[in-house]
Specification:
The complex is a heterodimer.
Chain A (H helix, E strand, L loop, with lengths): L2 E5 H14 L5 E7 L2 E8 L9 E2 L2 H14 L2 E9 L8 H6 L6 E5 L6 E8 L9 E10 L1
Parallel strand pairs in A: 1-8, 5-6
Antiparallel strand pairs in A: 2-3, 2-5, 6-7, 7-8
Chain B lengths: L2 E4 L13 E4 L2 E2 H11 L4 H4 L10 E5 L2 E2 L9 E2 L4 E6 L2 E2 L1
Parallel strand pairs in B: 1-7
Antiparallel strand pairs in B: 1-2, 3-6, 4-5, 4-7
Classes of the chains: A alpha/beta, B alpha+beta.
Bound molecules: zinc ion.
The site of zinc ion has 5 residues of chain A, from β5.
């Protein structure tokens, strides 16, 4: 995948969830069909931290069930950076565990910026990997 | 009937892109053995060198977290669904 397509309403919903989460980082999941986002899932940041995020496994499982039952695919994982640019941190690379776009919403400037990356590692437990940017195309 | 195992995106390079595979009933440890036999290299993705589930892998049997069942000894029957979920986190 070289592009993540997202209707503007979903981009807005994602940004709103991130702003609402301040001063802590916010996180969520995106469901997609054929590379186009069809739903935003606002998730709890189980780490409740301004510099870390983690999904609650139970919530995550429920969303994956929903995605499966709807015939969607996991379209991405998103989280906010409250004071840094929309680019994966070393922690983001180390913890990356899904082979889907990682969408980062930076609240460091106005308006917030949205960028997406694929974090490619030999082994998902590796602490280092390469970062490939994926274009985010906001539609409508 | 079989056990359906849902494969997370990060392991689909082992399963030729398939999001789920069908295995024979047994314990979760047996399922890991079956995965390893079919897709060499998968065991070390799921288990530590001590043979325990990796801390960052959550396993659900139907809708129960296997960590609260009998972990690798949890029995899985025909018709059950096993979901492997990687922890999703960052900073
Ligand atoms: Zn981050």
């Amino acid at each position: 995948m070289t592009e993540l397509r997202m209707p503007k309403t979903f981009a807005d919903e994602m940004v709103e969830h991130c702003i609402h989460g301040k001063p802590q980082e916010a996180c969520g999941l995106l469901a997609a069909r054929d590379g186009r986002v069809v739903q935003v899932f606002r998730m709890t940041n189980a780490s409740a931290s301004p510099v870390r995020y983690s999904l609650d496994p139970k919530e995550q499982f429920a969303v994956y069930e929903k995605i499966e039952s709807e015939g969607w695919e996991l379209g991405g994982v998103f989280h906010s950076h409250t004071h840094t640019e929309a680019y994966p941190s070393p922690t983001d690379v180390r913890m990356a565990s899904e082979d889907v776009p990682y969408v980062i919403v930076s609240l460091a400037q106005e308006p917030p910026s949205i960028r997406a990356f694929r974090i490619v590692k030999q082994n998902w437990m590796d602490s280092e990997g390469s970062i490939e940017e994926i274009a985010v195309s906001i539609e409508g | 009937m079989a056990v359906q195992v849902r494969i997370p995106t990060v392991f689909r390079k082992f399963t030729d892109g398939n999001p789920s595979v069908e295995l024979e009933p047994g314990t979760i440890a047996d399922l890991v053995d079956q995965l390893e036999a079919r897709y060499p290299g998968m065991r070390e993705q799921l288990l530590t060198s001590e043979g325990q589930l990796h801390r960052f892998v959550n396993v659900y049997v139907n809708d129960e977290d296997a960590r609260y069942l009998e972990k690798l000894d949890t029995k899985v029957a025909d018709g059950d669904t096993v979901s492997l979920l990687p922890s999703v986190a960052g900073g």
